[in-house]
Amino acid sequence: MKKSKFLINGMRKHSLPWLMLAPFLILIVIFFFLPIILIAVNAFTDMDSALQWTFNGIDNFKKMLLDPNMPEILKNTFIYVFFTLAINVLFGLVLGLLTSYFIQKESVGLLFRTIWMLPRISPPVVYVLLWLWFFDPSPYGILNSLRALVDLPPGEWLSSNPKTAIVLANGMIGASFGMIIFSSAIKSIPENLFQAAKVDGASQWSIIQDIIIPAIRWPLMFVTMWQLLSLLTSYEYILLLTGGGPMVESEVLSLYSYHKAFESFEYGYGSAVSLVLVVIALGFSAIIWKMFGMKKMMGTSRVE
Hints:
Layout: H1 2-42, H2 59-66, H3 70-102, H4 106-121, H5 124-134, H6 142-149, H7 157-160, H8 162-187, H9 191-199, H10 204-215, H11 217-233, H12 236-241, H13 253-262, H14 267-291, H15 294-303
Helix pairs in contact: 2-14, 3-4, 3-8, 3-11, 4-8, 8-11, 11-14, 13-14
């Protein structure tokens, strides 16, 4: 009798975590894994507005190779992701250092971080409206108002420099995420390490290079990978700011997939573009994983 009660209690103890996680696991399966499977299957069909599931093999991928817009879109994607990621990570690191290391007064650093986070907690439409005002081609736009102070004519910023516009808009809001992660990581470094370095006469650059950067290596990897995957798959700010135009000058793969699927109703072709985007994301993730030497670090941590 006691043995059976022990077994029942043991089963309850082991099943409780799964029962607690079950709602979240169901949501993940329905809204994450199931859409991925449907997109992967749909990529090999010629599904259009009639919503018919007719398999056509690799015809969508052949069409992608012959797509005259694809070279320009791939170049735009690389430029957009590379430069925006640089702003997200490097500028986010600078903001983190300023607000958690150089600014010693916590209240000032907290106020700065709060102000910088306002665009992230604002609706995307409101945030993009501010950038549209900034790049407004009329004399009342912010940039053109500044040019008028030095007697320069107004410029057509969004039509002449669409890539710069989408990089700046996405880079500035993405830097806030890096700022929060890096500032938290820097604050977790023991203060006595900084004091010992200063006593030894280390410069500020030496402290950053030899103490802070190695200590926040994991957060650096996390922010880089997270922002890379986010930039490859997100398109809402580009859609609201330039719509991918003029022509396809600011069109990226994720936005192209959206346009093909939900504007041209080429659901099969749009799914194929999305599937290629997933493969590209996995490849870049593996490169970043290797670049940061995570296997070696994980092996070291296990030994310790």
